[in-house]
Amino acid sequence: MRLLYDLGILLMNAGLRMAAPFNPKARLWVRGRKDIFRRMAEVVGPDDEVAWLHAASLGEFEQGRPVIEALREACPRYKILLTFFSPSGYEVRKNYAGADWVFYLPADTPRNARRFLRIFRPKVAVFVKYEFWINYLLAMRKEGTRLYLISSIFRRGQIFFRPYGGLFRRALGAFSHIFVQNDESRALLGRIGVRCVSVTGDTRFDRVCSIAARAKRLPEIERFAAGRPVFVAGSTWPPDEELLLGMIDRYRDVKFIVVPHEIDPDRIERLIGRIGRPALRYTQLTPETDSAEAGVLIVDTIGILSSLYRYGRWGYIGGGFGAGIHNTLEAAVFGLPLAFGPHYGKFREACDLIESGGAKSIADGAQLFRSEERRVGKECRSRWS
Q1: Is residue 368 a contact partner of residue 347, using CB atoms and an 8 Å limit?
Q2: What is the mean pLDDT for each group of 10 consecutive residues in the chain (385 residues)?
Q3: CA dist 197 to 147, 188, 353, 366, 369, Å?
Q4: Cβ–Cβ < 8 Å for 318, 325
Q5: Radius of gyration of the chain from Cα atoms?
Q6: Prediction pTM value
Q7: Nearest to 293 by CA among 251, 259, 252, 322
Q8: 60 close to 93: Cβ distance less than 8 angstroms
Q9: CA quadruple 45, 50, 56, 61: dihedral positive or negative?
């Protein structure tokens, strides 16, 4: 099994390198790891005590951020190392001031894991949610690193609970303690002999409450809204945008802010071309821009979505027609009624929102219309009829 895993990592690396000339994310992934060990060795000192936090991408970073901030306050002697797997996390947070160093995580080969640990010698390491890189975990187990997994969720169908998941079960033994989001996860781990487990919930709740309390005021958004109700659609993909186009055309008295998950200028231009109302791009706004007459604002930058939700009357969370929805908590903390696609079952907070009536899952455009007719249409009629 170990040989198959290592072969899979090598094939993944080869595939990303082959895709790099044609795919922007693959290009960033490859470029960000060029000469990475030399760059790492240049910054760390022989006497540095290192605490390492690893997150797959931006969402996992937000879960780990409260831990970084608490660790910085409680143990100021530590230098904080932050690593990412994905460009969508690294490129946004590569200048994060809460960490001393921010790097991509080198690919999970046995040699890379050994080199990485020789350079940084982390005293403590924290992995967030789903990150189970076998060679890093086993190397840290051998070195005796204090390793913790936070905000994790385990489900019956995962490889740990399959007959052929022995390698992954062994890797779980590298964690000194695992902090899970729910009792089901703790029970599943108990069945395979993992006992050092605590139910502590999701650190994203800490983070989104902090975000809501410190949400940035965005004057350009206030000028765009011009006192009218705003529908915010966050982290959208093309299937989400297909549904939203009908709503944008139907509710002319509502302003729409659409935040694509990936900033692709060509796709954004095509989207604007299909919108039957005046539309603007966020990066083109200036204090002189007459945005009050525009009906739609496409946000073609990153890092402000959590602050945008404060201006919304309703919200839509993208990704539910693909691998799964994105962060619902950033919107829910502002009290927005939410809608999203059908692929939400892996996200406990989304299930809880539906059960409590704070969100609805929709399967197609017609259902989105029916779902939002009472919310959006009723307010439009009462406000402007």
Answers
A1: no
A2: 90 94 92 96 95 92 90 93 94 93 97 97 94 95 95 92 93 95 94 93 70 78 92 94 90 93 90 93 89 92 88 93 88 89 86 87 72 56 41
A3: 13, 11, 26, 44, 44
A4: yes
A5: 22
A6: 0.68
A7: 252
A8: no
A9: negative
Distance CA 132, CA 172 (A): 8
Maximum separation of any 2 CA atoms in the chain, in Å: 71
- As given in the structure block, the two tokens for residue 331 are 């919107």
Which among 47, 117, 53, 54 has a CA at the least distance from the CA of 77? 47
